[in-house]
């Protein structure tokens, strides 16, 4: 792993950022949590790369709120064309 930001998928829609902060906090310092409402996924930024690796190892596939979590290193956001560029390909 190269970073400390994790993608967390297969979340129940009712899961909150506070719940994820508590869950991941057992594996290190949680710097930031962002749950994408109504989408079933979110992102957790850990305090270090080592803590992110530990959290991924411990929580990937773990049952949380009745669902098996998918935890992986977050990919950088894709660049999107600006609104003015649409249709100009």
What characteristics describe this protein?
single chain, 89 residues, alpha+beta, Alpha-Beta Plaits, four-stranded antiparallel beta sheet, two-stranded antiparallel sheet, 2 helices, globular
Class by alpha and beta content? alpha+beta
Give the CATH topology: Alpha-Beta Plaits
Portion in strands: 25-35%
Main pleated sheet: 4 strands, antiparallel
**Strand adjacency order, main sheet:** 2-3-1-6
Rg of Cα set = 15 Å
Number of DSSP strands?
6
Rough outline:
globular
Walk me through what this model shows.
The N and C termini lie far apart (35 Å). 22% of the residues lie in helices and 29% in strands. It has a single domain (5-74), classed as RRM (RNA recognition motif) domain (Alpha-Beta Plaits), CATH 3.30.70. A hairpin with a 2-residue loop joins β4 (63-64) and β5. It has a 4-stranded antiparallel sheet, covered by helices on one side. It has 89 residues and is an alpha+beta fold.
Question: What's a quick, concise take on this entry?
Answer:
The chain has 2 helices and 6 strands. It is an alpha+beta fold and 89 residues long. The protein has a single domain, classed as RRM (RNA recognition motif) domain (Alpha-Beta Plaits).
Task: Itemize the secondary structure elements and their pairings.
Layout: E1 5-9, H1 17-25, E2 30-36, E3 41-46, H2 49-59, E4 63-64, E5 67-68, E6 70-73
Antiparallel strand pairs: 1-3, 1-6, 2-3, 4-5
């Amino acid at each position: 792993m190269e970073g400390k930001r994790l993608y967390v998928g297969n979340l129940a829609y009712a899961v909150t950022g506070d719940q994820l902060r508590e869950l991941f906090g057992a594996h290190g310092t949680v710097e930031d949590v962002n749950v994408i409402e109504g989408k079933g996924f979110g992102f957790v930024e850990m305090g270090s790369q080592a803590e992110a690796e530990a959290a991924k190892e411990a929580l990937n596939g773990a049952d949380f709120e009745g669902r098996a979590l998918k935890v992986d290193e977050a990919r950088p956001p894709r660049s999107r064309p600006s609104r003015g560029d649409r249709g100009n390909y």
